[in-house]
Structures are given as structure tokens and as C-alpha cells.
């Protein structure tokens, strides 16, 4: 399969198009370029499952917790704060293997390769404020400057 190219304003990505994001206008272009490089390094498709959120999204996602007065991640790396920098956070997962996707890796091998490549980007200094969570339904990846006091961070969790 030939590569597609997606124009995002003044730059172009090879793998990710704006339609793969809920809030593409809130995503940091440099982070998107890094995601494109992550995809190239992996050698197989990645599926974006979550990206930038605004306060209304956060209120909707955590409506139960808010209604009960329970805690919820008010400083989520996915949250775009009004007037703040663009979001450098996604949840994603390796796409299931298909004969036409250019990789003969099994799903388990893809999961390991994705993890390795995320850590390589951190080790190479591309994501110095890495938040990396391996969850049951996705991988959380962020490089969020406002969370510098909590980064780098690694966790394993159950997906929401």
C-alpha cells in the first residue's frame, strides 16, 4: 500500500489524518509529527482511541464521579486549558494484524514494539516529560510540560 500524506495547515503527516482525532485543532503539531515518526518506527498501523479534550469533554467523561463528589483527573494530560498550550497526549493501540498492512508481526509483537518505540523516543530526548501508561484497552502517551513535576511517569492500569 502506498503512503498517504495529510496536510495539517502548514505541515504534512504521512500516517495520521485530522479525521482520526476528536479535537484535531487542540493537538500540538510537533507532538503529531512525533506520533507520525512513532508510527513509521513501528512499521504497522496505530489506532488513535482518544486525544485532546476540552473541559466539557472532561465533565461528560467523568459525570458520575463529579455527581458523587468523587475525585477525577482534573489535570489530565488530555485536557486543553483555555489559553494554554496545545495538547501533547493521545491514547492509542496497535491495529490488529492484516495481510495488507505491511507488517507480519503478531498483535503481541506489535504491543511490545509499540512500547519499545515509545521508550526509545523518551530515551532519545524527544519526549522528556513522558507519561506512559499501558492500560487494558490502550496505551496512554503524553509529553505534557505542565505536568513536569509528575514526569517522566509510567503506570499500568485498567482502561476506563
Layout of secondary structure:
Elements: E1 6-8, E2 11-13, H1 29-42, E3 46-50, H2 55-61, H3 63-67, E4 89-94, H4 107-123, E5 130-135, E6 139-143, E7 153-157
Parallel strand pairs: 5-7
Antiparallel strand pairs: 1-2, 3-4, 4-6, 5-6
Descriptive overview:
- The chain is built from 4 helices and 7 strands.
- By secondary structure, it is of the alpha+beta class.
- The longest helix has 17 residues, at 107-123.
- The chain is 27% helix and 21% strand.
- The mean pLDDT is 92.
Question: How many DSSP-defined strands?
Answer: 7
- What Rg do the Cα atoms give? 16 Å
Number of helices: 4
Beta-strand portion reads 15-25%
Order of helices and strands: EEHEHHEHEEE
For the report, how would you describe the main beta sheet?
5 strands, mixed
Helix content: 25-40%
Strand order, sheet with most strands? 3-4-6-5-7
Approximate shape: globular
Average pLDDT metric: 92
Q: Give the end-to-end Cα distance, rounded to a whole number of Å.
A: 34 Å
Class based on secondary structure composition and strand pairing? alpha+beta
Low-confidence runs: none
